[in-house]
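Something for you to look into today, if you have time. What I am after is a single protein written out in full by you. I want to see for myself how the chain folds. Could you add the entry underneath, on a fresh line?
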Amino acid sequence: MNAIAKFFTIFLIVYIPACIGYYDRLGFEGIDELMTFALIAFTIIKKDDETTNPEPWREYGIFLFILVFYVVYSLILQVNVAGAVWIELVQQIRPFSVIYCTWILNPKFTEVQKKWIIGSAVVTLGTWVPSHPGATMASSPDCVVLGQLAMCTGLIYYLFAAESKRNTYIALALILVGMIAPKFKYLGEVVCVVAMMFLVKKHLSFKAPWTLAFLSVLLAVILVVTWSQFDTYYVEGWDNINLARPMSYKTSVVVLGDYIPFGPGMGTFGCHGAVAYYSPLLEKYGLNEVWGMSKDFPVFIADAFYPTLCQYGVVGVFLFGVYWKRRLSGIHEIVDMRYYRVAMIAFLCLAIEQVADTSWLSGKGMGYCMLIGFCLNANRNMGIEEEDEETEEEELETVEEDDAE
């Protein structure tokens, strides 16, 4: 049995219940960090394995260099204490490393392994729902967990089960389990799933008018189904100085302007480091007076991902945009529409969730990252690259023959 595929099979079987489903009941909050560093260590060990994909290594090295730069910069600037910097380092290294390591390791699962992975996800979802009755209450954190668990389970089923209309509908049914939780943003994610699975028949070209029209309609539908919550925070509530989320967004823009070009540094704004070691920026910008952002009640400091980017300044925001532009470019090249759809859905879910969540930086976000990593290898595993090279050689030979004549 392929060691890499075996590792990933065990990794996913453990990950789904431990880091998404029953993370809150394990009593060991560090399991997602432990699994992340186990994945990084295994990737280093298998660096020279002939079945791996060496192409992402260079970019991964650049990412690690940038991260080290920001760590050193943050420790020198000392806007917050060193402990906050180390917490943010662990948070930031996770999602990017999971994508890169999955992409590098390139696991090729057997049908039996795929069934075990699907089984772990389905059993976790099936047992989780009756054991968490609070998921039906909008104020419960279980709402978010159920949505992420149902989405990852459905996408895993769609990707690893045999390709058929029947399995597509089963995957959708698993995703719709997340609708039990009354979270508006999950409705938007379901809209993206339905659109990608049933309406998109070919790759989206962001330069084509029909794609722009399709995305405009998709965005309009998402806003319609999520309007109640969107209006509360970002329209009617935008000028409400007592709402943590809009205040985080507005203040993050001010922070970007005040700390040019590299920002105030890691662990200073909107992140868990800023919660664990109460960031001085919160008092500096008056956020300590906002409900849920005080030192005694800091539950809404890390309530949205995008404001956290201000920690890295305009340079960091630019680099984050470049990173996702490169990933979208790679996703656009995926030939197999099933892998293309899963990668796009995972990207869209992350884009939507992080408007009002920071799970991209947590163990719950690792599932989306692994799915993107699996899909980025689709062409390589189908032999597309080799076929392209052979085609180029044949075309070159034809040109040479024509020239000779």
